[in-house]
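= Paired protein data =
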Amino acid sequence: MTAVSGVGGAPSPIESWPEAVKRRVPVAVCKSQDGATCDADDTDPFTRWIIFVDDADPAAASADDGNGEVDGTEAVLRQRAIDDSITVTVNASGRRMVYLPTGFPNNALANTVSQFVLCDDRGNVVSVGGVSAARAVTVSTTGRPTATRDITTIAGLGGCPP
């Protein structure tokens, strides 16, 4: 399985916070089916992530700024498919994460991803070094990610699909 930071060759959701700070605008990551827009269906699988500037015009305030949806001329910075061998599960109804210009996530936004588990065909079983073959990432309310390969923790976050 590839490293959590790559999610099967895809940009990691965590990569959006430095972009938000650097650009001084909200930057979001969301699941996408087409690589250009966010997927609004909670039941669709995570097959692709996109990272985008969530502010069409930094010179003007708008209600659409930081809403976690690609609006108008908001630029998609990165998009890649997640390898077919990787299954991504997230907290209930999670499908996006928005980082504010401060680098903190917008935790008040509905459907925010705060944890995700990455599994390959081995699932949540003991692997090399006595740790899980799966990976889990939790994102704190301050935006700090914590990755783990602990079997019990991964199982507590929902584990891997059968």
User: Anything to note?
Assistant: The chain has two helices and eight strands. The chain has one domain: 13-156.
